[in-house]
Amino acid sequence: GAGVSQSPSNKVTEKGKDVELRCDPISGHTALYWYRQSLGQGLEFLIYFQGNSAPDKSGLPSDRFSAERTGGSVSTLTIQRTQQEDSAVYLCASSLEKVSGRASYEQYFGPGTRLTVT
Amino acid sequence: AQKVTQAQTEISVVEKEDVTLDCVYETRDTTYYLFWYKQPPSGELVFLIRRNSFDEQNEISGRYSWNFQKSTSSFNFTITASQVVDSAVYFCALGLGYQTGANNLFFGTGTRLTVIP
Predict the structure, then answer these.
(1) What are the C-alpha distances in Å from A17 to residues A20, A35, A86, A92, A103?
(2) A37 has which bridge partners?
(3) By the 8 A CB rule, do A115 and A87 touch?
(4) Residue A22 in contact with residue A39, Cβ under 8 Å?
(5) Cis omega (within 30 of 0) on the bond before A8?
(6) Running DSSP on this structure, what letter comes out for residue B71?
(7) Residue B103's closest CA among A69, A55, A52, A14?
(8) Does the beta carbon of A26 lie under 8 angstroms from any beta carbon of chain B?
(9) N or C: which end of chain B has fewer CB within 10 A?
């Protein structure tokens, strides 16, 4: 079946502009995550949506970052007034929330959006 | 605090050699999950394995094997008879929240493996 898709694959923007990154999770996956991967670094957790619960925003680096998930499916990550340090690959992942009564944590990742702020 | 350490930044091996990628984790949770992901040059992270903290049985899948030792908080990954297609960045990750439901993963900084033909 289809995996996690993200768009755009690449985005170049000028400092100070707003950007929107889109994620389409795997159909049926109720949990959705955003991570950021800076050059040569590991993945940094940003935000997590689980079903109808309030999102876990604990990883968002500043109030310029926000995300929403409409209809429990597609998610949009918005970065306002972009800064050069926002340049990174933004990865989206989705997972099933529960499998056979146990938490299931296999997260399936999309190809990412490479954001370059000039 | 949670932390995953992959001390090996880069490793190069000649094809058909065995290679072990180290992963050490820190957590105060008694129940947790450990993962390995592969990130090939194409960039997309590929899930390799999940291990529960209450299951210390080692696992083998083809040329891949994993050694989980709670006593040393390590979850090492061995590739036997390496191939060029194994060249990638490998990430170890820690997942918490079995009870709390929190699902985000804590990633190490990755080990770049280059297999030389």
Answers:
(1) 10, 21, 12, 22, 39
(2) A43, A89
(3) yes
(4) no
(5) yes
(6) G
(7) A55
(8) no
(9) N
Chain A: closest CA distance from residue B47 (Å): 7
Q: What is the b/e burial string over A23-47, where b = at least 16 CB atoms within 10 angstroms of the residue's CB?
A: bbbbeebbbbbbbbbeeeebbbbbb
B89 and B39 Cβ atoms separated by less than 8 Å: yes
Would you say how long chain A is, in residues?
A: 118
Name the residue facing A42 among B43, B50, B107 (closest C-beta).
Answer: B107
pLDDT by 10s per residue, chain B, length 117: 789 999 999 999 999 999 999 999 999 888 888 999 999 988 889 999 888 888 777 888 899 999 999 999 999 999 999 999 999 999 999 987 655 445 678 899 999 999 999
Tell me the two tokens of residue A87.
Answer: 């340049």
Token pair listed for B102: 């929190």
